[in-house]
Amino acid sequence: MSGDQYAKGSVGYLMEMGALKRQKRSGWWIVGVKDPETIAEHSFRTAVIGAVLAMMEQADAARVALLCTFHDTQETRVGDIPWIGRRYLTAAKNEEVTADQVADAHPAVASGIKAVVDEYENGDSLEVLVAHDADKLECMIQGMEYLEQGYRNAQEWVDATRAKLKTASAIALAEAAEGMSSAEWQRTYLR
Q: The domain spanning residue 81 has which CATH number?
């Protein structure tokens, strides 16, 4: 391939990632949320949570944020399959989907993105552990926000994701989040 073709392949991947801004996190429909957040919104806050957790756990915050950023990018092709759906469906592995997504991208881009996804899916480093906790903690916090909006069925998701947290920092943040409102952060400035 020529450099121009690699550039087009890389831009094609970037445009595909734009679809994540339009795709909803479908698992929340199961608990009745009418307009759930998008996959991109989830991934953004997961990356921020991941960086914060990494700092608390003395892990590489940039690496964790990178892992979190790419952790759901495959959902442009396979969708957001909720936990209950995974019992009945067999989807391609995220590593396989990623390989297809970046097949026409610049070789350095393709190998870099495939390495990040492979690490998230198969690694056992502190950074991977923190990234997985960030994903769960984001889901828990989102569920708490939906509870505030009146979606009582979100409680089960909050409890289930909280129970899967592994790092001391994620557990401490989950405990701190319980009982807080989503507007808590601004109360100091309103006085």
A: 1.10.3210.10
